[in-house]
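Example record

The entry below shows one chain as it appears in the dataset: sequence first, then structure tokens.
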Amino acid sequence: MNSDELMSDPMTGQSGGNGGGGGGVPGLPHSSDAVAAAAAAVAAVKTSSAAAWNTKKFREECEMAKGRLSDQKFSIADYPDPLLPRPPHPKLYPRGTTVETEKRLRELIDQVRASSGSA
């Protein structure tokens, strides 16, 4: 058994590496002439379509379409500032919890941590 039989290229459909012609990656050109022709076709499409789409009429139509797509009722004033800290979620605190209660609980936690740290 030689290395060509062991190392077949699944993309070519041939055993023995990528030699032997044929196969290749589907959808891609197989010769340098085909590659050059494809590149020329792409370049021709790019230059012709760029000139056809860069008109005043097209730009106006594009702006009109963007205007239709955007939400006309949107107002930034309806939303809070995302950079400001938000109030805590109500489910995190039981009903009736006040700022004083939270302060007292934090002091108790600090006392317990201080007493357990020194022991």
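Notes for this example: Residues 47-81 form one domain. Confidence is low (pLDDT under 50) at residues 13-21.
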